[in-house]
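Hi,

I'm pasting everything inline rather than attaching a file, because the server keeps stripping attachments. The sequence lines come first, and each chain or strand is labelled.
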Amino acid sequence: MTRLALTLALALALPSLASAQEAQSVRLGFFPNLTHAPALVGLERGTFQKALGKVKLEPKEFVSGTTLTEAFAAGQIDIAYIGPGPAINAIGRGMPVQIIAGASEAGAVLVARKDSAIKSYKDLAGKTVAVPTLGNTQDISLRHILNENGLKPKTDGGSVTITPVAPADVIAAFAAKRVEATLVPEPWGAVLEAQGHRIIGTEKTVWRGGNYPTTIVIVNARFAQANPALVTAFLKAHTDAVAFINKSPAAAQAAVNKQLLALTGAKIDPRVLQRAFARTRFTTALDPAALKEYAALNVEAGYARSAPDLTPFLRK
Amino acid sequence: MTTLDHAGPGRPARGPSRWVALGWQLLGLVLILGVWWLLTDVLKLYPPYVFPGPKAVWTEISYGLWGSGPQDGKLLSAIGGSLRRMLTGYLIAVALGVLVGLLMGAWRPLRTTLGAYLTGIQSVPSIAFVPFAILFFGLNERAALAVVILEGFIPMALAVSGALLNVPPALRVAGRTLGANSLGLTLRVLLPASLPNILTGLRTAWSFAWRALVGGELLIGGVASLGEQLEVGRNTANVALVLATIIIIGLIGGLFDALLRTFEGRVRRDYGLEVPQ
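And the predicted assembly:
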């Protein structure tokens, strides 16, 4: 009993002790995708830096959840916009992750190459389908779609070859006829659609009627414990960015396009971006049920042996 | 009776000394495992998502090799896929290498041109060829196979042409004197005479090709392979799976090298090249 009291007292005292030496900077990880729009908009409009005050914001751009998770594990990232797939895996391996907010929902589509015969999910049999990286959020979704349609990946003795291709490279992979279809986050779906390729799975048919998280915000638990004020400030800025996107979509789209151009060197047609926006929902809400189902899909896909209980990792 | 009794100087105590070596190797293994276990599981110097302990890695190996769950046995099918790809590529590489090596050995202009280029290409890391192979063959096994063939073929061709050059001229003259034509001389004199060096080439070709295979598979994905297991382990923050795969890659590589080395040693002994120390 005394031990418990002592532990509690320590736990309560620790944050205040640590806040005496608060971080000098916040290292923020994100991807140059539309599904990470709150990050892009917050950066473009200076929302985060304003909220953090004297503490310097250090944005770091990543191309996949894999490299972001590695940076997170190495202690080089404090807060990150990331897909639920890598986040759940990180939690399952014991990384100090805390899920603090939602960022975007839906916003992933299954696109078939225009000259392929693929019209429905079932037609994926025997085809090569690209995902951003093996084990990422879209890969797990794809494996679930295959499962629902009686198909299997080649590595599990089925006929569908799942191959990792970075979303920005899918355009070239389609042109070179290296892959027949791809499950990609926006804006890449809309970009491919604009080139005449067919959407065979909309954001709604991909999973759960479109009610699934695509990007969430995580924080290093140790950082959160040492810098509670910074995390609160960041969350406030994140909420502002999401509210801005929902209130002024046109201005948000312009901001996203500016950041995408700066980060990837590619400018996206505003009409294409608008279509991609229409397929993505931005919200700070977290749906624990969806995350839980996601962890189960991760097991179904063979990426984990058991689904971790996510409740202790969600910010109340 | 201890092994030391037989391992006196000047005496090739082949049997017992081999057991002594094995004993030392086992001791080394136990030591490595012990230090690893101490650093990770006992002292917990590293978090398990950075450097997992031997127990976690063993769990991955056992699930991956003989687990019976629906998603288990992936390492086993990966080994099967990689070995099948490797053997196909290696056989083609060796056949091509012997052919080109013979031509280079027989014809100096080819040797001075192609030989020099091959030496240059050999210095390029195999992974550098993968993007090109993917463009050429697509995101599939053929791309990985192409890199394996290229990487296995070069050391083989260089070894064969080098081996032919090292055949004592006396043998060549003797063959000619006894009436052998070019083909007969090559097949019945030069090739047998250069066999020990060619076998060294076989072994080099194997290790080059094996490394190239894993590198290629890493980038191609989509088929059951050791490279894909590495990639999946990395993408799902499963470092234990990455380490398990690395260990298996090393074990298979080492096993085949030892096999070829034994064969090479036997031939060298038959040729009188192994002098008892």
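Chain B touches chain A at residues 47-50, 63, 69-71, 74, 77, 134-135, 138-140, 220-224, 228, 231-232, 234-239 (CB under 8 Å).

If the labels don't parse on your end, tell me and I'll reformat.
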